[in-house]
Amino acid sequence: MATITINESEAQKQANTEVKEWLWRYRRAKLNLQRLEGEYAELVSIQESAGAITYDGMPAASGNIADLSNLMVSRDNVLSKVIRAKKQLFDIYFEITSALEELDSVERDVISLRYIQLKDGYGIRDFDEIADTIKYTKRYVQKVHGFALQKLYQYI
Questions:
Q1: How far apart are CA 97 and CA 22, in angstroms?
Q2: DSSP states along 38-100
Q3: Tens digit of pLDDT for each residue in 128-155?
Q4: For 72-128, how does the pLDDT look when each residue is reduced to its tens digit (9 = 90+)?
Q5: For residue 146, what are the contacts with CB-CB under 8 A and spacing of at least 6?
Q6: Which of 43, 91, 101, 134 is in Cβ range 3.0-4.6 Å of 75 for a Cys bridge?
Q7: Separation in Å, CA 111 to CA 9, 10, 19, 72
């Protein structure tokens, strides 16, 4: 009988891990988008600092003016990646928030604060912070979190 309990406990831990990974996709997508937007901003900055090039057909005096076409192609490629990353972020957000509709309001608050409404947009909130925000004890928040993960496992 004890073996069944241990196996059930292990199965529940595995299920919770799967749900957490499913939820953490949002944060990873958000960090990826932030990285790509930073890369794009850097390419724009480099391009703008290079100055204007005149294409009047006259030979350049120094003969050492860099061709910015590769930079422009890189910038366009990164912009395409930014657009795809924004769509992916939206899709993940929509999928998760749709699943959150299956939870009661406290469960939804706990999961949303932990996995969606990140500190400073990217940092992970611990259970103490969540408890302070929603005015419950840390222990209660942890229990609600566990119940919510079980419900979400059925959804995913």
A1: 12
A2: HHHHHHHHHHHHT-----SSSPPSSS-PPP-HHHHHHHHHHHHHHHHHHHHHHHHHHHHHHHH
A3: 999 999 999 999 999 999 999 999 999 8
A4: 899 999 999 999 999 999 999 999 999 999 999 999 999 999 999 988 877 889 999
A5: 16
A6: 43
A7: 21, 22, 11, 41
